[in-house]
């Protein structure tokens, strides 16, 4: 039986970075994907009434990035010193900013406002955020390696999963334009994807729209 049980919906969403982290760490896990109806049955018993949660050794952790940071510290995927960990945190926090910008647009109900917001996001907001990731990547080894140090961390996985979402289509491919135009970001994406444990996970994971 797997030591870790990750419970979330049948989506990549807020759980995919944990799935990638557990895969990179070589840890077997139960990928428990539940329906919204089943979520409602357990909602009140969850630590923060939301998913994802990670259960292991009698513990239950909520908050997707708390889970990711916990696992990263456990399995050496959080950089080699405090400063490297801070750079990993910069990437994770910028990831949160990026998804907040995406959610703001995609949760807008008024179609006219939504169109305007989407245009601003793809013309200026997203290129700006993507150029920040490009700058961070280039600070180490000119952008030809990992975000920090000489091995992959959860910062690399975070960037991978963001661009996986953006190029996957559900948010509209326009948003990925400046990512695709940046050779260093593009080859970093492929570098992560080609890591054996990551490639194995991508190969076996269920296909979902987001
Ligand atoms: N900050 C939390 C947010 C968790 C969250 O928003 N979960 C959503 C799914 S992505 C959820 O459980 N929604 C159902 C609900 O709130 O009733 C995290 O990163 O884990």
In total, the number of strands is: 4
Low-confidence stretches: none
- Biggest beta-sheet profile: 4 strands, mixed
Q: Report the CATH C-level class of the largest domain.
A: Mainly Alpha
Number of helices: 9
Rg value: 17 Å
Q: What's the SSE pattern?
A: EHEHEEHHHHHHH
Q: How many discrete domains?
A: 2
Average per-residue pLDDT, rounded, comes to 95
Helical percentage: 55-70%
- In the sheet with the most strands, the strands line up as 2-1-3-4
How would you sum up the global shape?
globular
Question: Structural class given helices, strands, pairing?
Answer: alpha+beta
Within the CATH hierarchy, at the fold level, what is the topology of the largest domain? Glutathione S-transferase Yfyf (Class Pi), Chain A, domain 2
Q: What separation lies between the terminal Cα atoms?
A: 28 Å
Bound molecules: glutathione
The percentage of residues in β strands lies in 5-15%
Protein architecture, described:
With 210 residues, this protein is of the alpha+beta class. The chain folds into two domains: 4-76 and 199-204, 3-Layer(aba) Sandwich (Glutaredoxin), CATH 3.40.30.10; 82-195, Glutathione S-transferase Yfyf (Class Pi), Chain A, domain 2 (Up-down Bundle). The chain has helices at 16-24, 36-42, 64-74, 82-106, 111-138, 154-167, 177-180, 183-193, 196-204, and strands at 4-8, 29-33, 53-56, 59-61. Helix 4 runs antiparallel to helix 5, helix 4 (82-106) runs parallel beside helix 6 and helix 6 crosses helix 8 (183-193). Bound molecules: glutathione (GSH). Residues 13-14, 50-52, 63-65 line the site of glutathione. Belongs to the GST superfamily.
């Amino acid at each position: 039986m797997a030591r870790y049980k990750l419970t979330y919906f049948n989506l990549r969403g807020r759980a995919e970075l944990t799935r990638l982290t557990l895969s990179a760490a070589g840890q077997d896990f139960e990928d428990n994907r539940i329906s919204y109806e089943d979520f409602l049955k357990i909602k009140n018993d969850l630590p923060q009434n939301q998913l994802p949660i990670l259960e292991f050794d009698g513990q239950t952790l909520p908050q997707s990035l708390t889970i990711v940071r916990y696992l990263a510290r456990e399995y050496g995927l959080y950089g080699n010193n405090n400063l490297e960990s801070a750079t990993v945190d910069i990437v994770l926090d910028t990831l949160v900013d990026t998804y907040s910008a995406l959610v703001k647009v995609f949760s807008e109900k008024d179609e006219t406002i939504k169109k305007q917001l989407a245009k601003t996001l793809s013309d200026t907001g997203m290129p700006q955020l993507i150029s920040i990731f490009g700058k961070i990547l280039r600070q180490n080894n000119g952008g030809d390696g990992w975000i920090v140090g000489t091995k992959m961390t959860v910062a690399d996985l975070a960037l991978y999963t963001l661009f996986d979402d953006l190029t996957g289509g559900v948010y509209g491919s326009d948003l990925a334009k400046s990512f695709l135009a940046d050779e260093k970001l593009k080859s970093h994406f492929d570098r992560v994807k080609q890591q054996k444990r990551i490639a194995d996970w991508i190969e076996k994971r269920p296909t979902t729209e987001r």
